Amino acid sequence: MTRDVEPKAPVELFNDSINRATLRQLSIVDLIDRAATLSSVDQKQSAVELYKTWIAHNADHSFLHAAYFNYGVALMAVGDRVGAINAYRESIRLKPDFYAPYINLGGALEECGQAGMAVTQWLEVVNNLSTTNGESIFHKTTALHQIARILENSHKDSAAEDALKQSLDIKLDQPDAIIHWILLRQRQCKWPVIAGWDRVNRKDLLTGISPLSLAYLADDPIFQLAAAHRYAKTTVGILNSAQNQGPNPNARQRDSLKLRIGYLSSDLRGHAVGYAMSDVTETHDRENFEIFAYYCGIAHTDQAKQRIMKAVDHWVDINSLSDDQAAARIAADKIDILVDLNGYTRSARTGIFARRPAPIAVNWFGFPGTMGTPYHHYIIADSHIIPTDHEMYYSEKVMRLPCYQPVDRKRVVGKCPSRSEARLPEDAVVYCCLNGMQKITQHTFRRWMSILGRVANSVLWLLRESSDADESLRRFASAQGIAPERIVFAEKMGNLEHLGRYPLADLFLDTLPYGAHTTAADALWMNVPVLTLQGRSFATRVCGSFVRAAGLGELVCSSAEEYVERAIELGRNREKLAALKAKLAAGRNSCFFFDTPRFVRHLEDLYRQMFSDFVRGALPLPDLRNLDVYHEVGLELDLEDSELLTDEAYRALYQVKLAERHNAYPIYPDARLWREIKSEPVSVFDQRAVA
Length: 691
Hints:
- The protein is an alpha/beta fold.
- The protein has a domain at 429-594: 3-Layer(aba) Sandwich (Rossmann fold), CATH 3.40.50.2000.
- It has helices at 10-22, 28-40, 44-57, 64-77, 81-94, 100-111, 115-128, 134-153, 157-170, 175-187, 202-207, 211-217, 221-235, 272-283, 303-311, 323-332, 350-354, 442-454, 467-479, 495-501, 518-525, 538-549, 560-572, 574-586, 596-615, 627-634, 647-664, and strands at residues 259-265, 289-295, 314-317, 337-340, 360-363, 378-382, 397-401, 429-433, 458-463, 487-490, 507-509, 530-533, 556-557.
- Helix 5 (81-94) runs antiparallel to helix 6 (100-111) and helix 9 (157-170) packs antiparallel against helix 10.
């Protein structure tokens, strides 16, 4: 590919290219190369004109189909979807066995609102391609992914799952396909979730699970740490020195003595994180803190987003910036503490943190677990979520609030409908769980069916996900001897109306291993008691923290048997339920859980402690020893049954497996479950300053 054209100025390059195209002196390779160069210097319309001119003067060229394909790409880049559709169709007409334009044509049709036509184009690829070479495999799996996405958006989760299964049958090494296939099964309540088939085994699938899906699946914090570490290495990788900003030594070289806090998230909008952070950003002490919001979410602006934009000192939309550019912007803003409000959730920008644009990086709120990276220094929790003897499960240094999550005191609540309007029986005991379906496991649902079986005239009120999930749960209920109509599904609705209907429930039943977080906060705010069962991992203990902070510690259970019996007791005793609701209402204005100003003062104290660590050269260095070994060991265990183990049995299981591994391949001691015998306990954190 020639490169002699690159030094030319854009105007000179364009004029020279047009002239050569007109004289038929521009090869297809040079055409594509020059058009790409024009696009890279923000001359996208010039690239379009170049393709248009070349096509007009080279109608007999043997690679005209390729020119039309790239012309379509260029038209899409300038927003001309109709023109792109015509270009892709002409490319297909000229060479029907050239499958790249089918993929792009489907995407363009989807953007024009023609999802059915898009699927038709992708099915052309799936039905006509063999899988005998790399190119055909690529196009066929891409088409299957696009089909799965359309089906999922149409709430046809089972069909979407089948499309991804076909894709994995063709090529297993597709991390995104594995991640999404697992999540689709979780949302449909298909148990066991990790189920292999003829050409794909369980271990292959579990290796590719996302940290978020793993939190839904298993109460196994050591494997969650190891999996998070692996996920960071495979998705972000190890950056070179040119990409890594490094802790900014000039962070304090400015006139202001205020600590600069940067909140980075895609969810600073009408989202659980956005609702709660609205009150936090409005309450920060502006005399001592300067607040930056770095937004990487959807373009839509709603009320929650507007509140945060108004509350912060600086709002920066980084959607158009690469990770390198965003990191450079944050470094230029001289941020002292950069807070990751996404973690491993949708639209996260973990790569920005990997570039270390601020001297201190904090994992808080957006993701219920450890990040397992060398560049997240702290995790914010509380003493219930992460007791001292659980610190071994986290790569970050644990910093604790009295209660980990904020609550928006200023939220607006809609009118409460009647039970009949919500299709609930007027006189029944209404147990509810308005968590997402992906949080419901087989063990949790069995417990619920046991409760319904022993409490006459009771129903279970769940949040609707899809018809596939609804039918799956009703079939399971029937198999447990519970009439399917006793499972009632609530339609999804806006936050205002959703909050308004909570008082229709008598008792919220939490899930395990991934419990209610914001949904628990919503229920408690609306005076609905929450019964929870705590486990070992972060996501299993958040709800217990909230319930305790709201003054209902007696509803935090330590065993499955206690959880079931307490739910039955309360379902049979309306007076006790009423007393709990009265206690919750009486403490609403005095308990820490609903006191945002006090919460923010504690949060700011943590920020001061973190910055003090940095100034005195004591920034914690995460201990990542042996995490690859822990991951290999965890892959051999039955993770979906891990919640049935006591803490002692859980740790012993890993120690036995590590010992077996050590006998074959010696393992260097670490500060977690594989320690040196006859040695003093080792801190999980090496307190050496980060260079």
